[in-house]
Specification:
Blueprint lengths: L1 H19 L3 E5 L3 E3 L4 E7 L4 E4 L6 E16 L2 E14 L3 E5 L3 E4 L2 E4 L3 E6 L11 H8 E7 L10 E9 L4 E2 L4 E4 L6 E6 L7 E6 L2 E15 L3 E5 L3 E13 L5 E11 L3 E5 L11 E14 L3 E2 L5 E11 L15 E3 L3 E9 L2 E14 L3 E5 L3 E6 L4 E6 L3 E5 L9 E3 L5 E3 L27 H29 L1 H16 L1 H5 L4 H20 L8 H10 L4 H17 L6 H21 L2
Parallel strand pairs: 2-10, 22-29, 23-31
Antiparallel strand pairs: 1-3, 3-6, 4-8, 5-6, 7-10, 8-9, 11-12, 12-17, 13-19, 14-19, 15-17, 16-17, 18-21, 19-20, 22-24, 24-27, 25-27, 26-27, 28-31, 29-30, 32-33
Length: about 600
């Protein structure tokens, strides 16, 4: 009896342990499939758990899932529990791939599945079934990318139009979504949004009548010469396919099929701007422009201010270059210009106006000529450079002090020096001395102040001198301070626009370009990322800092078209200041 009791107890314990054992397994619908087939992956467990984590599915794209299925049943007093996470995968390339480990936490323990090897072969021939919804969706819905120009010049606008063609045999439900969007790494880009209102047009696809909608228009300005790749746009579209079944009114019942379509990649061959005939005043403007230089007043008094505006109007890469700088006589005090932009971007590119407003304050009386300002641009239609110039503006300062540096113009247009006999009248010739006999100077307060004052100030001067000497001796600290000041100076405009995403990133991108102009002596048209990186390395800037700067330029291009918070903009601003400061410290 004792032996029987012990045996029964051991059997009961083993049975209980077997029932309580956790099982977590991965299963696939097939281990070998064609490039045009789909794979189902199930992750099954016999106990409920938390924090399920799926593998990355490298080599596949998830087209469905995760779907959950739970089974909970009792049979002969025994409870059976099963929970399954299911994924549907579409292979992206041929080869051997591994479905990695999934993990889940059950009762505080982490369990993982065993990796499964899957082989993807050539696409398999599938018998055509004219009634198969998958086949009908594949044959009746297409995505096409139309490029306005395949061989533009550097900084010339091109437009990529994404059209979705739908035959009249099927219909597309609203709610299609983008799976992958092109990044346009070597372009300045901007999407032309339609606000979700898609107009249906009639057109032809491969000679047959189709309807189409324009999903997106994207304007691109190439920033690099040579062959540039345009990444494909991929969208998932719910397609409604008619079936053989009918409703009560005799109308065919529809079946919805999710169809993944791709516009395909493309290559743009970007031509460099010609060197022949390139003027010295060319700063990278490409398009058709006009220039206007105006002053809000031409007659004023000394120490009054006037506004001098330099405006560039037209169509072209308005946001990618600076207006020409104004050079004024030294007797006119000029403040840093304030840039204003009124630029629209439509399907043909940028159009509008950019301007720089100068505040000018004359100090002395006289006539001040503002010489004509020249502006050059490249016209891609005629493939030639054009130069335009403003009219000369004469500023007349009617009232104010005279200076021997004040100039006027004679009849021949030559500058002559204007002198005046009263220009030294401010010098006081009468001394107006007073007698000191009433109060003797000796032993007075003034006497002791003059005598003891220098003795009191000597220690202060010594302390200030030592601190100044220590500050000058701190070469590294001096460089740090100068570098930080340089970074803040160039990023001042971006800081003003924190909170306004588009203006902020445009200002920060312009600040980075202006910094490069000042430090590397290059123009906007030469600012290719590879050239910038090469020049920084030649100036002994560390590889890490170069990578950070290039990454920052790319971030400015992408961030304008993605959701961004104020916290992210603040972080990008601090990052930009740190990178500019690091470059300034390392440049040789």
């Amino acid at each position: 009896m004792k032996r029987f009791a012990v045996t029964f107890l051991l059997f009961f314990i083993c049975g209980t342990t077997a029932i309580a054992q956790v099982q977590f397994n991965a299963k696939v619908s097939k281990t070998t499939l064609g490039l045009n087939e789909r794979l189902r992956v199930d992750f099954e467990m016999n106990r409920d758990g938390d924090n399920f984590s799926s593998p990355s599915f490298e080599g596949f794209r998830v087209v469905g899932g995760p779907n959950q299925a739970i089974s909970n049943s009792y049979f002969n007093g025994k409870r059976t529990y099963s929970k399954t996470y299911s994924y549907f995968l579409s292979p992206t390339a041929k080869g051997k791939f591994t479905i990695g480990q999934a993990s889940i936490e059950i009762d505080g323990e982490t369990y993982k599945t065993v990796p499964i090897a899957v082989t993807v072969t050539e696409a398999k021939e599938v018998p055509i079934d004219a009634t198969d919804p998958e086949y009908l969706a594949n044959e009746n819905v297409h995505l096409v990318a139309e490029v306005s120009k395949n061989n533009p010049f550097l900084n010339e606008a091109i437009t990529v139009t994404y059209k979705m063609y739908v035959s009249r045999d099927v219909s597309v439900a609203r709610g299609f979504r983008e799976i992958s969007s092109p990044k346009y790494a070597d372009f300045w880009s901007q999407n032309i949004e339609n606000g979700g209102n898609f107009k249906v047009y009639d057109g032809k696809y491969k000679g047959e009548d189709y309807r189409y909608v324009i999903i997106r228009n994207t304007v691109l300005y190439p920033q690099k010469t040579g062959e540039l790749d345009i990444e494909p746009l991929t969208v998932e579209v719910p397609v409604e396919i008619p079936t053989r079944r009918r409703d009560l009114f005799g109308r065919p019942l529809m079946k919805r099929v999710n169809r993944t379509i791709t516009a395909g990649s493309g290559t743009i061959n970007v031509k460099p701007l010609p060197l022949e005939g390139k003027p010295d005043t060319f700063t990278g403007a490409v398009g058709e422009f006009s220039m206007e230089v105006t002053s809000n007043k031409t007659t004023l008094d000394a120490n009054e201010s006037l506004e001098l505006n330099v405006k560039i109007n037209g169509n072209g890469n308005l946001k990618l270059f600076d207006p020409p700088q104004v050079k004024l006589p030294s007797s006119l005090e000029v403040y840093e210009p304030e840039r204003e932009e009124n630029v629209r971007t439509n399907s043909t590119g940028m159009s509008g106006q950019i301007s720089e407003k100068y505040i000018v304050v004359p100090q002395y009386k006289g006539n001040y000529p503002i010489r004509p300002i020249s502006f050059s641009y490249f016209d891609p239609k005629t493939e030639t450079y054009k130069t335009i110039a403003s009219e000369e503006i004469l500023i007349n300062v009617a009232n104010g002090p005279l200076s021997n540096e004040v100039t006027t113009t004679d009849e021949e247009g030559k500058q002559v020096v204007t002198l005046n006999k009263d220009q030294f009248k401010y010098i006081k010739l009468d001394a107006d001395l007073q007698s000191m006999e009433e109060e003797p100077f000796f032993k007075s307060v003034a006497f002791w102040s003059l005598l003891g004052g220098p003795l009191v100030l000597i220690p202060l001067f010594i302390l200030i001198g030592r601190k100044r000497k220590a500050r000058l001796a701190d070469v590294q600290g001096t460089r740090l301070r100068k570098a930080d000041k340089m970074a803040r100076k160039y990023l001042a405009e971006a800081k003003k626009n924190l909170g306004n995403k588009v203006v902020f990133y445009e200002a920060m991108e312009r600040a980075l370009h202006n910094y490069l102009k000042a430090k590397l002596n290059i123009e906007t048209s030469e600012m290719e990322k590879e050239r910038i990186a090469t020049m920084l390395r030649e100036r002994e800037v560390s590889e890490a800092t170069v990578d950070q700067f290039i990454s920052l330029l790319k971030s400015c291009e992408f961030a304008r078209y993605t959701p961004t918070s104020n916290v992210t903009m603040q972080q990008d601003y601090e990052h930009a200041a740190a990178v500019i400061s690091n470059i300034d410290k390392q440049l040789r």
